[in-house]
Structure formats: structure tokens, C-alpha cells
Design a protein that fits this description.
Blueprint lengths: L10 H5 L5 E5 L5 E5 L9 H5 L22 H6 L5 H11 L3 E7 L5 E6 L2 H7 L12 H10 L4 E6 H11 L5 E6 L7 H15 L2 E5 L13 E5 L3 E4 L1 H7 L20 E3 L9
Helix pairs in contact: 4-5
The protein binds flavin-adenine dinucleotide (FAD) and iron/sulfur cluster (SF4) (3 copies).
Amino acid sequence: MDKGQCCGCRGCEDVCPVQAIRFYRDEEGYEYPEIDGEKCIHCGRCRSVCAFREKEPEDYGGTAFYEFQAGAEDRRKSQSGGFAFALSRAFIERGGVVYGCVLDEGFRAVHIRASDMGTVERMRGSKYVQSDMAGIYGALAKDLDGGREVLFIGMTCQVNQVFKRFGGRRNLLLADIICHGAASPRLFQEYIQYWEGREGRLLGYCFRDKGFGWRNAHIETLVFQKRRKSSDIWASIYYSHHSMRPACYHCNKTVHHSDLTMGDCWETGGE
Ligand SMILES: Cc1cc2nc3c(=O)[nH]c(=O)nc-3n(C[C@H](O)[C@H](O)[C@H](O)COP(=O)(O)OP(=O)(O)OC[C@H]3O[C@@H](n4cnc5c(N)ncnc54)[C@H](O)[C@@H]3O)c2cc1C
Ligand code: SF4
Ligand code: SF4
Ligand code: SF4
């Protein structure tokens, strides 16, 4: 498979009628589909559902752009203006569900489903590593078919794939984040191991600690049993642009199927 043409969204796995697609992890920790030739019935669904290859830019028509800032406390806890959190809260309060990215107990970025505010809290903050979408399409189908109001937040490629699969459903809102790229999950795991080798078990991690202010936006905080450490090593790795998924170097971000897009608007004169 051409790795530059697969963002790892897992959309193809979900539509295969005979479960012929399995994902394997390569040496950089990125997941790729592999077809079992014995099971495949050559129906072509996996190819036609793949949104990553779409290259036609969307006509933005009358799209308007707004600036949003949540209250001071929510801004402090969220990564940017707190819009993702505020939007998620609105869905939960209406009885809906939210899909977004958390760091799990092993510090792996994964997409999960939230039906309560405790889980939404865990989604706060940008994780500068690729999020795994395993199991997400099945859960989305169940919620959407059951009539729940669903908010899905993710990278542009993930949102485009969810749109391709479920676009047009009236109970689905899609929000993508302006995306600089998805760093290697394996590299990040090795990075965590490096720190644990030095300082003992890692108890907490924040990719971008706003406690250091807007201008020092790329300082991470690591919490160990005996002390906290600050560093800019992961930011240096991430912004070196040597650690991204191959598809990120071929990504056509002019294709947006989201209902709204979120990003940092730091130069607009706000705080
Ligand atoms: C890897 C990455 C690169 C980014 N690059 C840019 C950029 O170049 N320019 C720019 O303007 N903005 C960028 N952003 C977006 C920005 O950092 C904020 O995430 C966005 O503005 C929302 O801020 P918030 O305060 O509303 O989010 P919060 O309330 O803090 O919530 C964060 C939301 O982001 C989602 N999320 C976090 N990490 C991931 C992930 N790895 N994959 C999918 N979803 C995730 C969570 O599900 C959550 O809904 C990037 C975000 C990420 C994750
Ligand atoms: S980008 Fe296409 S081939 Fe790759 S996981 Fe997604 S749907 Fe499958
Ligand atoms: S062609 Fe059809 S059967 Fe074969 S892997 Fe793709 S979706 Fe599955
Ligand atoms: S750069 Fe493109 S392919 Fe890479 S994670 Fe972001 S949206 Fe997906």
C-alpha cells in the first residue's frame, strides 16, 4: 500500500462486508489496512468509501468565520479558546453524545465516546500525536440510528471520513481542528519511556501547558510521583516535521466536510 495515501482513519475496515480488513502497526507505530485475499469478495466498498483520496476543494460559499472565547476558567483549562469544550458541553446537556480524543492510561491518543461531562473533561487539550479511531464507526452508527444528537470532533481527515460514511444525517455535527499533522504514536511511546527511565512512573502529561502563557505555547508538563518537569522536547520533535504520518505530507486540507473548523486565533487581538 502507498503509505502516503492512507491517513489511518479506519473507514475501510468498517464497510467491509466480510471482515477481510485488518490493521497492522508499522515500525513507526502507524496503523495501516491489510486485506486478507482469502476472504475478500472484491466488492470495492473499501476503495469507494476512502475519503482521503478526494482532491476536489469544497466550495465554501457563504461560510462565515467567528471568534469565540469561553469563560476564563474554561479558557485556562482548554487548549485554545475553549470552543471544543463549550460545544461538547452543549451536546451533553441536551442529552447528546460527543466523540473526541483522550490520552488513555498508557498515554496513547484514542478516540472515545462521551455521554457525561467527566469524559468530556478528558478530551480537553491538543494531543500532538495521532489518535486511534478503532471501534468508532460502529459506535457512531448505533448512536445515529438510535436518534441521539452526535458531535464528532477530530482532525480534518477523520472528520472527512466520518462525513463520507454518515454525512447528511440531521443528528450529526462535525467539527474539525486546523491540523498541523499527526506525529508517530510509537515515537511518543518511546519518548514517555525515556522520561520514565529517568524519573520513574509518569502520572500525568500535558502537551502544551498554558500555565506558561500564550507566548510559550509549546512547553509540556510531565507529572511524576516526586516532581513535575517542564520541557520543550516533544514540541521540538513535532515541529521538526520529521515525525509525521506519511499521509500528512500529502494531505489536501482544502477538502473540508466539517460543519465548523476550530483553530488558534491568537493574532486577532484577543487575550
Ligand atoms: C495535532 C494538532 C495540531 C494542531 N495544529 C494547529 C495549527 O497548526 N493551527 C491551529 O490554528 N490550530 C491547530 N490545532 C488546534 C488547536 O490546538 C485547538 O485544538 C483548537 O483550536 C481547539 O481548541 P479548544 O480550546 O476549543 O479545545 P479544547 O476545549 O481544549 O478541546 C480539544 C479538542 O481537540 C480534540 N483533539 C485533541 N487532540 C486530538 C487529536 N490528536 N486528534 C483528534 N482530535 C483531537 C479533542 O477531542 C477535543 O475535542 C491543532 C490541534 C491538534 C490536536
Ligand atoms: S485512508 Fe482510506 S485506506 Fe486508509 S484507513 Fe482510511 S479509509 Fe482505509
Ligand atoms: S473489496 Fe470488499 S470484500 Fe474486499 S476488502 Fe474491500 S470491502 Fe472487503
Ligand atoms: S495533516 Fe492531514 S492527514 Fe495528517 S492528521 Fe492532519 S488532516 Fe490528517
